[in-house]
Amino acid sequence: MSDILHTHVRPFTVQKQATVAELVQGMAGTSFQARNLAIAARIWRRMLEDDVTIFLGLAGAMVPAGMRNIVRHVIENRMVDVVVSTGANLFHDVYETLGKPHWQTSPEADDIELGRRRINRFYDVLASETDFADAEEFVVSFAQTLESDRPYSTREYFEGIGRALIPVAA
Q1: Using an 8 Å Cβ cutoff, are 53 and 80 in contact?
Q2: Distance, CA of 56 to CA of 59 (rounded, Å)
Q3: Which helix (DSSP H) or strand (DSSP E) does residue 127 occupy?
Q4: What does each C-alpha distance from 162 to 21, 37, 52, 72, 133 come to in angstroms?
Q5: Distance CA 103, CA 99 (A)
Q6: pTM (2 decimals)?
Q7: What are phi and psi of 147, to 5 degrees?
Q8: Average per-residue pLDDT in the chain?
């Protein structure tokens, strides 16, 4: 059996007033997703030390789940070079910039009742269908201001919609 044994699991030790970095580093000696988080942090730290291009892939409802400010922090502090995201995250970012909230709920919420009340559910997050329609209307109105005789890059499109959101967000 010694040929398949690798390293002892080191139980996580709770320390008062530990930094987040110290907490994550302490997880490196554990197993399951805690160890994977520590491995990811170590890889990212090594990437930041090298001259590389770092891509951040965003799938799933990261913005409605409350990760919007983390993504912004990572971008503003140049911790990534390229963000590749689903359109849903970008729409939810517009939605929140328009002042529309997301709400916590249970993943077992009654979808039929939510539907009757015109509420959308994304696992354990809710959003008003009326607020969604308002955000969609904003995006459609913006799209109608674009020149129809030329293509737009994704960057141009989102820079433009960002400028259109400035007066609304102020």
Answers
A1: no
A2: 10
A3: strand 125-128
A4: 33, 33, 28, 14, 19
A5: 13
A6: 0.76
A7: -65, 130
A8: 89
Q: How far apart are CA 116 and CA 105, in angstroms?
A: 16
> Which helix (H) or strand (E) covers residue 152, if one does?
none
Segment 34-47 mean pLDDT: 88
Q: Who contacts 109 (Cβ-Cβ below 8 Å, separation ≥6)?
A: 121, 124, 126
- Domain extents for the chain? 1-52, 57-169
Contact (CB, 8 A) for 127 and 103 = yes
Q: What is the pLDDT of residues 113-165, one digit of tens each?
A: 999 999 999 899 999 999 999 999 999 999 999 999 999 998 899 999 999 99
The answer to whether residues 82 and 56 touch, using CB atoms and an 8 Å cutoff, is: yes
